Amino acid sequence: MSIYTASATAPVNIATLKYWGKRDVSLNLPTNSSISITLSQDDLRTLTTAATSQSFQEDQLWLNGQLESLASKRTQDCLRDLRQLRSELELQDPSLPKLSQWKLHLVSENNFPTAAGLASSAAGFAALVAAIAQLFQLPQSMSELSKIARKGSGSACRSLFGGYVAWEMGHLQDGSDSKAVQILDQNQWPEMKALILVVSDIKKDVSSTQGMQLTVNTSDLFNYRVSTVVPERFESMKQAILSKDFNQFAELTMKDSNSFHATCLDSYPPIFYINDTSKRIINLCHRINSFYNTNIVAYTFDAGPNAVLYYLRGNEDKLLAILNQFCDKIQGWDAKFSSEQIQNWNKIY
Ligand code: 2P0
């Protein structure tokens, strides 16, 4: 019996304007639009191969070599939507094999350690949706497919695009206008680089899903953030990216990271994602920018203490030279400090 296969990769994306809060938990509809940069395929990515055959007995997923459950509602929602689109194609063209009715085998592999504390769900769901869409030969655009990836994990919708990506929150109740769009291809502003400082690889104790709903339900500051701060910042950040204005992009990115962590602190009970080492990194970035009299580096922190620094290639040498004073080993563009090195820095700084 025939086996049909297709493979796709999706890289991790790091938000520069943060998604934090759902207006619909079941559909992963956000309370604000967000913006991110997708890292390069060579760096942090998930590779997924999807196979289907009439002989397969059940849907199965192997993640990094381990058999994993596909039972979660999020995964089931993605599989159901993709099969629905395929069955529409099969109705239009009865000569097509009935892949929508067959079971799927999925093999996924991350090229980065899950312990690095980086959200892997975004790349994971994006690669899963992209691989199955290819297997089913779906004609839908990436923005259309991003609505399916969004149901797996909100931030996953942004990983279907490379480069600079916006997730437009949409306003419809069914989520049909809540999708990702590309702002700028990575080749149009290729000088941007990211450096990940691994402060801690310990799993966070408040998951993003739990944390964001605690913030929605208890933080007063959150209402101001989503009603006033983010809508304006979303437009300004898009403009900064389109005009490749790093100084402005960096200011908005740092302010938005701080605003997001302020709403975490304003939640009740408060959520602490950044730690003292993260705060030292924040201070150091401001000192560097102040020394150069313009922003040459931007920090951003997700739901954990690890820093992602954005900077332009032309400033790499001077930035790394400064960082090197504190940490003795840096590798390549996706350079990661080990937690031990950052802890050493903790003592020096
Ligand atoms: C973001 N984060 O924009 C924000 C910033 C974390 C901090 O998206 O519940 O794993 O699966 O929709 O996408 C992490 O949340 O949450 C996240 P779900 P997700 O990248």
**Number of helical runs?**
9
Poorly predicted tracts of residues: 328-349
Query: How many structural domains in the coordinates?
Result: 2
Oligomer: single chain
Helix-and-strand structural type: alpha+beta
Tell me the number of strands: 15
Tell me the fraction of residues in β-strands, as a range: 15-25%
CATH class of the largest domain: Alpha Beta
- Average pLDDT level: 91
Query: Hetero groups bound?
Result: ligand 2P0
Largest beta sheet, briefly?
Answer: 5 strands, mixed
Q: Tell me the overall shape.
A: globular
**Rg of Cα set:** 21 Å
Please tag this protein with its features:
2 domains; Alpha-Beta Plaits; 23% strand; 9 helices; five-stranded mixed sheet; four-stranded antiparallel sheet; single chain; 15 strands; Ribosomal Protein S5, domain 2; binds ligand 2P0; 349 residues; alpha+beta
Care to describe what's here?
The chain has 349 residues and is an alpha+beta fold. The protein has 2 domains: 3-185, 2-Layer Sandwich (Ribosomal Protein S5, domain 2), CATH 3.30.230; 192-348, Alpha-Beta Plaits (2-Layer Sandwich), CATH 3.30.70. Helix content is 39%, strand content 23%. The model is unreliable at 328-349 (pLDDT under 50). The chain binds ligand 2P0. Ligand 2P0 binds at residues 15, 18-20, 28, 34, 119, 121-122, 153-155, 208-209, 302-303.
Topology diagram in text:
Elements: E1 3-11, E2 13-17, E3 22-24, E4 29-30, E5 34-38, E6 45-53, E7 60-63, E8 66-68, H1 73-92, E9 103-110, H2 121-135, H3 142-152, E10 163-168, E11 179-184, E12 192-197, H4 208-218, H5 220-242, H6 246-265, H7 276-292, E13 297-301, E14 307-312, H8 316-324, E15 336-337, H9 339-348
The chain binds ligand 2P0.
Ligand 2P0 is lined by residues 15, 18-20, 28, 34, 119, 121-122, 153-155, 208-209, 302-303.
